[in-house]
Amino acid sequence: MLRPFRFPGLWLGLWLLGWLLCVVLSLMPSVNLPGPAHSDKIGHFLAYFSLTAWAVWTFRARRAHLLAALALVGLGIAMEFAQANLTRVRLGDVRDALANTLGVAVGLSLTFTPLQFLLERVDQALFRPKNP
C-alpha cells in the first residue's frame, strides 16, 4: 500500500503527525497574525494541501489517495464543527471548511502528475545505501 521507501514508517509517521498537529492547532486558541481580512484561509488551504500531498507521496494506489482525501475533507468539516460546538475559544467557519476542501482538491491533483513520486526520490536521495 505504501510506496517502496527504504523507511516507510518514517514517512507514514510524519503524515500521521501532521494529522495530530492539524487537530491540536484547530482546537487551540487562535493566534492573531497580521494580514488582510480572511488571510487565515491561506493557512487552511496550505495545511490541507500539505496533508493531501503527503498522502499522495506516501501511498502507492490512487484509491488510497482518494480515501485519504475524503478523510481529510471529513476532518476539515469535523474540526469546524468542533470549533463551533466544543470550544469556547474558536468559531466554526464554513469558509474555513471550503478552504480546507480546496487544499485537499489541489493536493489530490498531484496524483495525476510526476510530482506524485517526489517523496520516493527524496527517500532514495536520503537513504540510498552507500557503496563500499
What does this structure look like?
The chain is mainly α and 132 residues long. It has a domain of 87 residues. It is 67% helix and 0% strand. Helix 1 runs antiparallel to helix 2 and helix 2 packs antiparallel against helix 3. The model has no long low-confidence stretch (mean pLDDT 94).
Strand content: under 5%
Termini separation: 32 Å
Helical run tally:
5
* Rg calc: 16 Å
Q: What does the overall shape look like?
A: elongated
How are helices and strands ordered from N to C? HHHHH
SS-derived structural category? mainly alpha
Mean of the pLDDT scores?
94
The total count of strands amounts to 0
Helix fraction bin: 55-70%
Low-confidence stretches: none
- What characterizes the major β-sheet? none
